[in-house]
Design a protein that fits this description.
19 strands; 486 residues; IPMI_cat; iron-sulfur; five-stranded parallel beta sheet; 3-isopropylmalate dehydratase large subunit; single chain; binds iron/sulfur cluster; amino-acid biosynthesis; EC 4.2.1.33; Aconitase, domain 3; disordered C terminus; binds 3-isopropylmalic acid; alpha/beta
Length: 486
């Protein structure tokens, strides 16, 4: 078993007792709630006439069903089921004294975007949410776990969950990323190498020079997709980048209290001589942008590679999965993903819906227009992100290029609102899952990639290498400067 890792330390600090069934009872420091998975759990409390144990540690927002067109946010929502979920959340949070970031709060957005940007997610915490992408919060050096309905009930009623301690795999990502290559490419590379179930029974500790040099938004993108690699959670040890990001955020204490908190944060980072159950190294030096060619996030290649033949996979499961994927995507082994026709470009989600994501995509869009037959959607991960992009004028680049600039929510990531693929449309998407039917149409096809790559696909109407547009952008600017100098 691991020893001296952040995971071990945070686990020990939050362990209440060992339960008779061998699991540990773990205290949850921060409980995040959204409209989809919470109504039933609140119902269970009501049935037993139980109060919420720690309303002050519980924060709610609405994301999955949130309409992303301003005029569709009027209540009651046109979609009856969505309205029911939203009003249940409003009622449950109000009845129990829980803070709810609704449409009018100015802070509404995707749970995993909102909690980090408000400074709610902090190092050394246990974070739980009825959502599989709760690992996102591990970017701060916390242990974020997705939980099911009965566990949501348990956290609401007791502040605790019963949990099994996992093995810890250290993933050293070494090297530096080239221009136009991002955190998203790192995590896709990791999943390509270790597989979609490589992390089963583990949490991933990401480290190494490539991880250390990422900013917090990049780290959030990496940790977000831990679950896509099969890991129960994923985290990065806190460092100066983490502390500086947290300083001054709404829920982060100031002055001496900050320094005190920081001392704790520093103490929970993995020791130099920590023992891991497993250590792997991934080389990030010189990797190219990655895009998926299949129907799970592990079916992915660097943009210069060709689509593998099913026979090239060792296991029968992988071979069959590849065959199924090629059929669904209407692709052939040996083909390049470059030039694969795209109908929809979707930029947003809890993986890549933050300011730097829009900023990078905007660099590609600058001076370009979305291809004529492409429907392009930019959906900020939160209203805070939207406002910041608008303050910086980033929204204008999107609008001028021909993107629809929307309000915050999960949107076409999972299509629980009106934003969905139609028929067998192909979507260049900055999201984290390319499962069949994921984006609202059973024949719809999803190609996962970084935000800059989504922007390039929007412009070309096909999968393209964003770096060509970034180069254009740079030489364009240089030319302009020269003209002015003349
Ligand atoms: C609806 C929710 C429970 C789900 C999850 O658990 O992740 C969703 O967010 C997703 O990304 O598939
Ligand atoms: S953006 Fe997508 S992955 Fe993230 S919580 Fe929403 S539906 Fe899930």
């Amino acid at each position: 078993m691991s020893e001296g890792t952040l995971y071990d330390k945070v686990w020990e600090k939050h362990k209440v007792t060992e339960l008779p069934n061998g699991q540990d009872q773990l205290f949850v420091g921060l409980h995040l709630v959204h409209e989809v998975t919470s109504p039933q759990a609140f119902g269970m409390l009501e049935e037993r006439e139980l109060d919420v144990a720690f309303p002050g540690r519980t924060y709610a927002t609405t994301d999955h069903i949130a309409p992303t067109e301003a005029e569709k946010r009027e209540r009651p929502l046109a979609d009856g089921e969505a309205e029911e979920m939203l009003s249940a959340l409003e009622r449950n949070t109000a009845d129990n004294g829980i803070t709810f970031f609704g449409f009018e709060s100015g802070k509404q957005g995707i749970t995993h975007v909102v909690a980090p940007e408000l400074g709610l997610s902090q190092p050394g915490m246990t974070v739980a949410c009825g959502d599989s992408h709760t690992a996102t919060h591990g970017a701060f050096g916390s242990i974020g776990v997705g939980i099911g309905t009965s566990q949501i009930r348990d956290v609401l009623a007791t502040g605790c969950i019963a949990a099994d301690k996992q093995h810890v795999r250290r993933i050293d990502v070494e090297g530096s990323l080239g221009e136009g290559v991002y955190a998203k490419d790192i995590i896709l590379k990791i999943i390509q190498e270790l597989g979609v179930d490589g992390g089963v029974g583990h949490v991933y500790e990401y480290g190494g020079s490539a991880i250390e040099s990422l900013d917090m938004e990049g780290r959030l993108a990496v940790c977000n997709m831990s679950i896509e690699g099969g890991a129960r959670a994923g985290y990065i040890n806190p460092d100066e980048t983490t502390y500086e990001y947290l300083r001054g955020r709404e829920y982060v204490p100031e002055g001496d209290a900050f320094e005190e908190r920081k001392a704790y944060w520093e103490s929970i980072a993995s020791d130099e001589d920590a023992e891991y159950d497993d250590v792997v190294t991934v080389d990030a030096d010189g990797i190219d942008p990655l895009v998926t060619w299949g129907i799970n996030p592990g079916q992915v290649i660097e943009i210069g590679e060709s689509i593998p033949a099913p026979e090239s996979f060792d296991s029968r499961t992988d071979r069959e999965a590849a065959e199924k994927a090629l059929e669904h995507m209407e692709l052939e082994p040996g083909q390049s993903m470059l030039g694969y026709d795209v109908d929809v470009a979707f930029l947003g989600t809890c993986t890549n819906g933050r300011v730097s994501d829009f900023e990078e995509a905007a660099r590609v869009l600058e001076g370009n227009t979305v291809a004529e037959d492409v429907r392009a959607l930019a959906v900020p991960g939160s209203e805070t992100v939207r406002e910041e992009c608008e303050r910086r004028g980033i929204d204008q680049t999107f609008i001028e290029a021909g993107f629809q600039w929307r309000r915050a929510g999960c949107s076409m990531c999972l299509a629980m609102n009106d934003d969905a693929l139609e028929g067998d449309e192909v979507c260049a998407s900055s999201s984290n899952r390319n499962f069949v039917g994921r984006q609202g149409s059973k024949d719809g096809r999803t190609v996962l990639m970084s935000p800059a790559m989504v922007a390039a696909a929007a412009v070309e109407g096909a999968v393209a290498d964003a770096r060509e547009h970034l180069d254009d952008d740079r030489s364009g600017t240089a030319g302009g400067v020269e003209e002015v100098a003349d």
